[in-house]
Amino acid sequence: MTPSWARGLLCQVVRPTMATLAVASAAFGQPTADAPAPESSVDQQNQQPPQAERHQHEAQRNPGHQHEREMDHQHEVQQAEPQNEDRMPDHGNQHEGEAQNGHAIHPQPSMEHDHSVQHAEAATGMGAAAHDDTSSEGEHVAPDPPQHAMPAMPYREMAAMMQMDDTERVGRILLDQFEWRHSGKEDAALWELEGWYGGDYNKLWVKSEGERVNGATEDTRVELLWNRVISRWWSAQAGAREDVAAGPSRTWAAVGVQGLAPYWFDVEATLYVADAGRTAARLKTEYDLLLTQRLIVQPEGEINIYGKADPPRQIGSGVSDLNLGIRLRYELRREIAPYVGITWRKLFGGTADQARAVGRDASDVQLALGGRAWW
Question: What is the pTM of this model?
């Protein structure tokens, strides 16, 4: 039979080693296969006396040895203290101390396990959010298709029900220029008016422009045209033109095109034919440059060409006149816009010669002040 002091010495040597193995196995998450189960507290009390009583007996037998043990223990404690107070406590030393004191060792859960749990919870939350997002889509149900075909009905009734009528007649009147012009020698009043009425494809156009100088009407033109849409941006026009001036009046047959050219230029090109072999051509273009939504600059140009001279009306053959102008208007409302501008007129050929014969200039720059309106 082994004496009690021998068993106590065996426990002092073997148990720290087993505690170290237990701590290492707990850190790796696996129990040690060869580690025996710790003895119960009752066996420990039977095998050895309490640690406090053993220390007391040793102190009584050898006080100097006890003092050396206390000094060594204090030195070990100072070495075991962490250098940084913010460091985490050493769970391995804690488990070793508990094993020496005879307490059961409970391994701490690993950080990998905590991260896996967090990832699982996050995945569960994302899945729930995705389910909430798709739940509204699942609740939406498309309406049933029409069960009955639309019955046959007159065009007027269908247009009234759908509020769409391709044959509806509409109209507009535009007073494009109504202005007073001033030059160094004379003042003049000028107007340019047009209006149309009809449907989407066919309209009736009326155009009129004229000029009064020193209280006398010098040049007035009125056109009555049928307008037919021939493409997305262009219309064909055909009709009649009547010239009324100081000389004899002239009647012309007219044919031409009107529309929107590339880069948003409004273009009018018309050919005219009259009796006695008279022919003429007129080309006009203008462009709206928006500085703001209400402040607009409008440059324009017009040229007239005649195939045959008409001395009673002081018109020569070839290029008769060129008119260029620029106007700045401000739209108080979309329908009303006052403007100010400058115009330049140049006469050519026989037309310039006949103007000089009656004491007029072949070239003239004028200041324009007027307004624009439409209904």
Answer: 0.59
